[in-house]
Amino acid sequence: MSSDDPTRAPVCILGLGLIGGSLLRATTAKGRKAFGYNRSAPTVAAAVASGHDASTDLEATLRRAAELGAVIVLATPVTALRAVLPAVVEYAPDNLLTDVVSVKEPVTRLIAEHHSRARYIGGHPMAGTSESGWDATDSTLFDGAMWMLTTDDDTDASDWLTIAAIALDSGAQVVPAAADAHDRAVAAISHLPHLTANATAVVGAGESDLALSLAAGSFRDGTRVAGTAPELQRAMLEANSTALLNVLSETIDRLIQARDELRDNGTVEVLVDDGHRARKAYEHIATDTRQPITGVTVGAPGWAQELRRQAHQARVWQG
């Protein structure tokens, strides 16, 4: 290992798409040793041409990670984890693992299935664009972003601090949460918007190009994430199917109620007023400076529970 401080361990990133590639850029920019793997030769060639350390050889990359004691970051789509995890078990079984996948319970189950001895802290940086691939990567992508880390009662404190340090180094603020609470939250604020964006895009396209020629800000902003590669959207949405079904059902119920109110009484007052209040609540949290989590020593009795409690008050871990 390059340092006696475990929070400064090297980082090995498996998958160099938008998130993994941006993490490689961000960690390298902060002076941390980082290297990556991608099965696509053009992606690796582009990363190397940008001055980064990358390889198409998974075995060699993992053997190197084991030798250096690197933190391994799973940055592939969730559908590719079954192919990657057996190699991790074979070549780097003792390394600390984290991930940047947008769902946590399915990843936790996969790791338990393939690597029961894993030291694993789940992660999800709330950052991204509708673009994908190495060309879209950005060392500043995580600046100011919320980065969720799984924080269960039996989480190892030292491992948690090590992964938190990677997120903080990347410019993010850490949000401690339980895996199931995270998945319910992102179903509502990330995955559902992908479905509604796609529905809006389809309806807006209509039967001719007239509507699209008139489309402006509300259509552009409301359909932005529909521009994400369909295979990436499906992998994300289908992996969180249970939580997504629940919020989708609630959304459909609200739309049906709005339709019936518009048909019977000529108004959409209820949904519009509720939505306006909810948007203002979001703006209040999003634009105000986040208050830090205080009074918690990671590793002290009850630390994980207290981190989660304060996170539910919109507080963040800043180190």
The largest pleated sheet is described as: 6 strands, parallel
CATH homology superfamily name of the largest domain:
NAD(P)-binding Rossmann-like Domain
For the record, the CATH architecture of the largest domain stands as 3-Layer(aba) Sandwich
How many E strands?
A: 9
Cα(first) to Cα(last) distance is 22 Å
**What global shape is seen?**
globular
Q: Briefly note the structural class of the backbone.
A: alpha/beta
The total number of structural domains is 2
Overall radius of gyration: 21 Å
Name of the level-1 CATH class of the largest domain: Alpha Beta
Low-confidence stretches: none
Please indicate the percent range of residues in DSSP E strands (runs of 2 or more): 5-15%
List the strand order in the largest sheet: 3-2-1-4-5-6
List the helices and strands in order: EHEHEHEHEHEEEHEHHHHHHH
Assign a percent range to the helix content. 40-55%
CATH topology category name of the largest domain: Rossmann fold
Q: Average pLDDT across residues? A: 94
Report the total helices: 13
